[in-house]
Amino acid sequence: xxxxxxxxxxxxxxxxxxxxxxxxxxxxxxxxxxxxxxxxxxxxxxxxxxxxxxxxxxxxxxxxxxxxxxxxxxxxxxxxxxxxxxxxxxxxxxxxxxxxxxxxxxxxxxxxxxxxxxxxxxxxxxxxxxxxxxxxxxxxxxxxxxxxxxxxxxxxxxxxxxxxxxxxxxxxxxxxxxxxxxxxxxxxxxxxxxxxxxxxxxxxxxxxxxxxxxxxxxxxxxxxxxxxxxxxxxxxxxxxxxxxxxxxxxxxxxxxxxxxxxxxxxxxxxxxxxxxxxxxxxxxxxx
Amino acid sequence: xxxxxxxxxxxxxxxxxxxxxxxxxxxxxxxxxxxxxxxxxxxxxxxxxxxxxxxxxxxxxxxxxxxxxxxxxxxxxxxxxxxxxxxxxxxxxxxxxxxxxxxxxxxxxxxxxxxxxxxxxxxxxxxxxxxxxxxxxxxxxxxxxxxxxxxxxxxxxxxxxxxxxxxxxxxxxxxxxxxxxxxxxxxxxxxxxxxxxxxxxxxxxxxxxxxxxxxxxxxxxxxxxxxxxxxxxxxxxxxxxxxxxxxxxxxxxxxxxxxxxxxxxxxxxxxxxxxxxxxxxxxx
Amino acid sequence: xxxxxxxxxxxxxxxxxxxxxxxxxxxxxxxxxxxxxxxxxxxxxxxxxxxxxxxxxxxxxxxxxxxxxxxxxxxxxxxxxxxxxxxxxxxxxxxxxxxxxxxxxxxxxxxxxxxxxxxxxxxxxxxxxxxxxxxxxxxxxxxxxxxxxxxxxxxxxxxxxxxxxxxxxxxxxxxxxxxxxxxxxxxxxxxxxxxxxxxxxxxxxxxxxxxxxxxxxxxxxxxxxxxxxxxxxxxxxxxxxxxxxxxxxxxxxxxxxxxxxxxxxxxxxxxxxxxxxxxxxxxxxxxxxxxxxxxxxxx
Lengths: 287, 284, 299
Hints:
The structure holds three protein chains of three kinds. Chain B is mainly alpha-helical. Helices cover 75% and strands 1% of the residues of chain B. Chain B has helices spanning 2-36, 42-46, 59-90, 96-108, 112-126, 133-157, 161-169, 174-202, 206-209, 232-242, 248-281, and strands at residues 49-50, 55-56. In chain B, strands 1-2 form a two-stranded antiparallel ribbon. Chain B starts with a helix and ends with a helix. By secondary structure, chain C is mostly helical. The longest helix of chain C is centred in the last third of the chain and has 36 residues, at 263-298. The A-B interface holds A 2, 5-6, 9, 12-13, 16-17, 20, 22, 24, 26-27, 31, 34-35, 38-39, 41-42, 45, 51-57, 71, 181-185, 271 and B 50-52, 67, 70, 73-74, 77, 130-131, 214-223, 226, 228, 238-244.
């Protein structure tokens, strides 16, 4: 009985192996960029019979490191490749190909929004992050403990956040907050906790259960609206990249071309991000 | 009077405990059923994931879990047989026998995430396999080894001595006895142990999430290196954190229900044999 | 019987056993060797240090050990009495016809995968706990208590099954003798069966503890994963309604992927694994030893 099972198993694997193409396109990286890319993969699989594997292990950092180690052909990232990353993987010529833009919003739960907090300044956010500001009443809100959920280390969203507040992720102070991982977990936990605050891709704020705050820069409230992200006025805008090692070729090029095509850009918009066409050069304003 | 009170009180309290325990567990199964049933359909099992989990089905997740389980079986069955034979036949009178049993029981208590870390070091990095179905299968096989082995050991121990003595009287060597008497008679123990082990392996996420499985895109592996599979438990784990759409909701529960069904069926088939061994072994 | 020195079957058995043993030993050795950097860096401070900031090179595992122990302790506090009571009922008072049905159902339920429990936890349990604890102003529903409750439900079937085995291990002659001497059924259980089943019951608790210590996925989703939650007083209850981190949730998180390639950070992660292994092994060995004692008494 076991022998028969073994034969069935072996032949399945063999047949499966024979019917597959030799090249599999492997993609890994940010859960934010994953949305349009994964859907693009489904389309390419159906139409061009390509073999594409998509994973989101380690977020943006995972995308960079796996491309650097040669484990994947395309990385997905929601932040720039840093000098440190380039130095770590000298053999890899990281090529950033922008496919859209997105913003990191500070989202709060309904009670905070209704309680009057509609925007925060950089200093206030730094104070909250460093644990100096512990109650919403200190920033114009209800008398409630601030329940800050910090994004996991390694997430592009987190890096964009600390980049704006401290200028360099390395300069961010060492803090301990409850952690959240992916977008769904973040939204879910903020929605179900009173006094909650966290970082989230702006397209995920539905303004029914979680609400995106504006950022107060030089006295003006800048909301994470499409206009502000497109012009770069909203401080925590970030480009969405797919990464390749040098010029993309073969299946990787097919994927890149697709993402840059109208259909690919439609997918980017469908998931709430800004397509390349919507991005405008920043008007000369003081930052 | 007081003595009767003690009796009745004890019965009442323990009955309450039993009812409490059973109802908690029943509620859990019911909660999963209620939420997962709407997603179950023939298409759910035969389609693959679409819209990153919001639509489509879990076909390749079922295939992936199946591949992992078959590999785990292929790894653990021979090893378990070898160990059980050492315990029951070749080392019957050796002082090593007890140490062997202790190692098995300790291995059974090792947290599953540690198998994942072990696999990450050895398979993903040292052997350079990246994520591979073979690593996952081997790790799972290693993890369920105690379960399979102990079931087989118990079965061998319960074989009537007359069989072995008769074989000796007929002039068979020890190994011939093993091949023609002991092994054939104890196959049921191997099957029971394997079913129980596979039931456990089917639901494990931690050993395979670093070493063998991804969320989307894998179908049937075409080799060893860099050939991950999809799987049921990892699918649930990712969707619980990263699902992209409210409509994913019932899909997650549907997957959970399917996983539960796989585990229950495997356990159910093994149950009669297991209960029999358990009840027989007890003089009570 | 005729024993040839070596035969194919014998050789195969030896080889397979050796392979399995080598893998087991290899795993332990690997953890020890790969964690050396952190032992050199922190020494015993790794176990007693209360700060974990990997970017600053600080690696203290104490808050995670606390989290692991606290969560397991809560689980035991809830599951052990309930489970043992249920086992007593199933073993001693339940009419024989129902025994197989009930025992079989509980064994089936012991097989529910942890990720399914995690799903129930993140979508149901944490909201319930959050509402229940309103008065104490918890940060959210992700607390050590939540994780403990979920674990209690997970290990309940294990406790029931193993405790029932322990009770069945007491020979029926003991019960008959006790009844013959005039004790009623309740007294028989309390004064004859339970004392003799005690080692086995303790073993059941220890083995269930082992499972609680090692659980990753279910706890990961609802414990909050907040580092450096070292309580001011070890016996106070306040930290239990705060978020925490256990050894398993740290290992199952994103740091494991980040750490690979950096000797010190990776050494720290593997060091956590080693600590977890040590805890689990100690608890398991104690449990197995107690089981041995109880089965010796049974014959």
